[in-house]
Amino acid sequence: MSKKRKISLSEEELVLALRQREKIAVEALYDMYSASLFGVIVRIINDTAIAEDVLQDTFVKIWNSFQSYSTEKGRLFTWMVNIARNLAIDKIRSKDFKNQGKNQELENNVTFIDEQRNTVYKPELLGIKELVETLKPEQKSILDLVYFKGYTHVEAADELGVPLGTIKTRLRMAIIQLRKHFN
Fold this sequence. Notes:
Rna Polymerase Sigma Factor, Chain: A
């Protein structure tokens, strides 16, 4: 059984091959950039199976929208990383992705995340828990949603039934209050 030799082209050769829609371009693209793009995606998504799907979508999008790439605007790798990053962010913001997380048992999810990241989250050891407890209840609830649960400001406003401006103001005031303890 012989090992397949990885294809490596210069950036100029790869761009030319992609513009001419040659088969070797796709193979070179995968061989040269799949590991780096996968690394970007998996950092955002934290789920290997879903990250692999997004990587595939990334290569399809690169192939289908290559005519919009311009060498004058930047390097090929930077353009591809932006596509991968945007697709990964779109995926985690999608209803499908959010619903998938809601349908799993919380205890199993927390254990899985702790094992995957090889960390134990203990805010009491940092003193953060005590500091957050000093905040007003409305500030504490916003801080919890935005920083600890990953809500966007708009999602937090919807969840709490509060105007977006109020969310931003209360969050800013909470951060200023917490900052006083560190200065």
